Amino acid sequence: MPMQLEGFTCRHGALRLLCSEMKSTATGVTAMDTVANDDAAQPPQHIPLGAELRSRYDSVMDRVAKAAARVGRRPSDIVVVAVTKYASMEQVRELIAFGHEHLGENRVQQLVQRAALVDEQMLRRRERPTAAQDGSTPTVRWHLIGTLQRNKVKKAVEIARLVHSVDSLRLAEEIQDCCQKRTEPVDVLVEVNVSGERSKHGVAPAAARHVVEMIDTMIHLRARGLMCMAPEGQTGALGEAETRRIFTRCHELFEEICTARTGMSANGLRFDILSMGMSDDFEIAIECGANMVRIGSAIFGDHATRELETDSPAND
User: Fold this and answer.
1) What pLDDT digit, counting tens, does each position of 83-135 carry?
2) Exposed, middle or buried, 91 (CB in 10 Å: 0-12/13-18/19+)?
3) How many domains does the chain have?
4) Which end of the chain is less enclosed by CB atoms within 10 A, N or C?
5) Would you list the DSSP string of 34-58?
6) pTM, whole model, 2 decimals?
7) Could you report the per-residue pLDDT of 20-65, keeping only the tens digit for each?
8) Residue 231 domain boundaries
9) CA dihedral in degrees (40, 44, 48, 51; nearest 10)?
């Protein structure tokens, strides 16, 4: 299985950041000089900005590196998708200034709004270069990680670099129909409901390979891997054991599909992404084989305030 994810590799420097555990006493500093005047009102004091956000971010990257090392993997093999669901735009700007590329949203409406604001920021950077800038513009890659309603597909695929939540063949067919005029296929992950919970979306494990094979026949989609979520309401040692069991089973399923597709890479069919793990369980996910994790509150804080209205229920 190729470990260097085409089009999704994180900045190696960011993942090499090894630091001590995050200290909660860090104080905020101003955002990037180029966008310092964008917001007239100061955000609430409880939102971590500047130094505190940096400390949280570095701590997460340190934990990613250590989890990878425990199972003999390289930190650079793990892509961290920073979930901005409850982050303020100031925090998003700060994270981009740190050099982080991969951002994720749960809801299509907020994805559209966030992406527009980030694009505006990038334009301002190009129009107002400062002595501290080298003329380059940060790269931002958007991921849609939440449930995708079929009536929101068109908007989603215009922005998202990767859709993590294709939870049915019907949704895949809807994406195919909406992308007839695209010159490049949409990269997607098949969401698998490994735990079998009724509250979760996703195809049954037994159906995952079939759905992947059907997507392979669609010229406007490209199945890049699998996504799953840990069971809900699990705590303590028993909860960790169950989470590890679910992630291990998804990794086994991922490997089974990879094996079945051996040789297909020569035809341009890459299946190399396993998206598992969020703020509470990403270390377990990495130890179980995930090469993409979705992290929100561990980076932005438990009390980050959402600035934008959203449109549909989804997962974080």
Assistant:
1) 999 999 999 999 999 999 999 999 999 999 999 999 988 887 766 655 445 55
2) buried
3) 1
4) N
5) GGTTS-SSPPPTTS--THHHHHHHH
6) 0.79
7) 333 333 334 333 333 333 443 444 445 446 889 999 999 999 999 9
8) 48-127+140-297
9) 50
